[in-house]
Structure formats: structure tokens, C-alpha cells
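Page 42, continued from yesterday. The earlier attempt failed because a stray header line got pasted into the input along with the sequence. Redoing it now with the clean sequence only.
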Amino acid sequence: MGVACLATSTLARADSLREQQTAACKGDAVKLCTLAIPNEEKITKCMEKKKDKLSPKCRAFFDKGLKDKKTSEKK
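This time it went through. C-alpha cells are written below.
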């Protein structure tokens, strides 16, 4: 039962984080990557290429993602 609660908690946090990222980056996606919409993978790649033009709140999610990726590569 503890594992089920932990898994639910982790999924809820992931959904919340996802919602926060969407809220922070939606305007940037529309402004900078209109042609990539609705393909999420293309939007992500476009925004990574234009990271220097992202709003500070949105850029923070991409910076965090790069840090997490580098950390997992070191393992």
C-alpha cells in the first residue's frame, strides 16, 4: 500500500510540474514555435534551439531539464 501511495504522489507531482511548465512556456511556444504546434516533440526541440529568447520562467524549466539530463548521464 505504501508503494501505491508513493507512486500516486510521484505522478501527482509530475502532473503539477508539467502544468507549471505549460503555464510558464505556453506564450513562448506560441510566439517562437508556432509552426511546431501541436507536435510536442517539435515544440520542445524548437524551444531548445531558441532557449536564449525564452522568458526567464520558461527558460528555468529547460535549464533544469539539461541539468537533470547531465546528472543522469554521469551515472
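Notes: The chain has a mean pLDDT of 78.
Reminder to self: strip header lines before submitting.
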